[in-house]
Design a protein that fits this description.
- The chain has helices at residues 9-32, 39-49, 51-76, 78-91, 97-137, 140-143, 147-178, 180-225, 236-256, 263-290, 301-322, 331-355, and strands at residues 3-4, 7-8.
- The chain is mostly helical.
- The protein has 2 domains: 3-91 and 113-178, no CATH class; 182-355, no CATH class.
- The longest helix has 46 residues, at 180-225.
- Mean pLDDT is 75; it is low at 35-43.
Length: 362
């Protein structure tokens, strides 16, 4: 288990997710509530119960329902969640760190904006339907009576427990669909900056990985040549400082290259991006074939499969500027890459969650 000063980081990650869950959903509902009109809530909830009730359900009840369902899920599978992070770490150990940060940053953002908001209302319905079925299953008096009574009793229980979750489902989804165009406008406006910021991080890490590979390769050569003794040590801390300096430098160049008149700096930034992309790809291939890598030596096959997916995304990302003759990456391509990244990371988590043991592993 990865630890920091005696603290199990996988357990800490579960605690952090648990704490941030209400923050996320209340912020999400705050974004959604910017839209003043929703036909469903106006003609159903507001018409029969009044504006105050509709507002209360929308701003308080809905996020509370979402939070409770996710909290129940996290608490029920807290060990599995924690062990999943360990499985993800093993699976992605073969993937270069710069890819993990670049695509991980984009993937998490995509999951939070496009995936969780749509699946959560259905989780609420499934949770309440399961609760209703548990009540019916344990109601011996209903089972002892006629089938007609059992059917009516079941319909009443399901109706009482599912009415509000179904209203919440339509309230949330219809409202989220209504503001989807607004979300996409914000997405199209800020995505290029978000995307380039991620590229800058990946650039700094690509150069850092080159120095790491040189030192790690020297140490590996010494082990093979001097009976398992390696005199060269990888200066991890110095490499991290170098990566930080490079990030600040690249970020400064990028900021000054934003004006349309800064053509020279734009060219410099393009050269940096391409140079770092080539360096990163070569380092990844060399480390892969030479067996060099940071972290756990046990690398499952699924990790190599994910690495191939990311390599495909890298080729897809570089195609427009390398072959297509475009100066910048189109917004549509950025969107496709980020959505694909979110799906890949969701797949990685699901595989890790299914395979992780549901027990406390010391």
């Amino acid at each position: 288990m990865p630890e920091w000063k005696g603290i199990d980081l996988t357990r800490l990650s579960v605690v952090i997710i648990f704490i941030l869950t209400p923050v996320y959903f209340f912020l999400l509902m705050g974004l959604i509530n910017q839209d003043p009109f929703n036909p469903f809530t106006y003609y159903i909830i507001e018409y029969y119960f009044g504006k105050d009730v509709e507002t209360f359900i929308r701003t308080i009840i809905t996020p509370i329902f979402f939070i409770i369902v996710w909290w129940m899920f996290i608490l029920a599978y807290k060990n599995k969640f924690a062990n999943s992070f360990s499985e993800i770490r093993k699976t992605t150990s073969v993937i270069p760190i710069r890819w993990m940060i670049f695509y991980g940053f984009n993937g998490i953002f995509t999951i939070l904006i496009f995936i969780i908001p749509y699946v959560t209302p259905f989780f609420v319905i499934i949770a309440f339907a399961s609760f209703a079925w548990a009540i019916i299953r344990n109601s011996e008096f209903a089972w002892d009576r006629s089938k007609v009574f059992l059917v009516f009793y079941s319909l009443i229980i399901f109706g009482l427990l599912l009415l509000l979750p179904i209203l919440i489902l339509f309230e949330f989804v219809t409202k989220y669909v209504i503001i989807f165009n607004q979300v996409m406008e914000i997405w199209n406006k800020f995505l290029p900056f978000f995307y380039e910021f991620s590229v800058i991080i990946a650039n700094a890490l690509a150069i850092g990985s080159l120095f790491w590979m040189i030192y790690a390769g020297a140490a590996e050569f010494e082990k093979e040549s001097f009976s398992g003794m390696a005199m060269t040590e990888v200066p991890e801390n110095e490499i991290k400082v170098l990566e930080l300096i490079l990030f600040v430098t690249f970020f400064t160049i990028w900021i000054y290259s934003l004006p349309q008149t800064a053509t020279t700096l734009k060219l410099v930034m393009t050269i940096i991006n391409w140079t770092c992309l080539i360096i990163g790809t070569l380092v990844m291939l060399i480390c892969f074939f030479k067996g060099l890598g940071r972290g756990d030596d046990k690398r499952p096959f699924f990790g190599y499969f994910v690495m191939i997916l990311f390599l495909g995304l890298e080729a897809f990302r570089m195609y427009p500027t390398l072959i297509g003759g475009l100066k910048t990456t189109p917004i549509e391509l950025m969107t496709i890459i980020m959505l694909a990244t979110g799906i890949i990371f969701l797949l990685v988590f699901l595989v890790a969650f299914v395979s992780a043991p549901d027990e406390d592993i010391d």
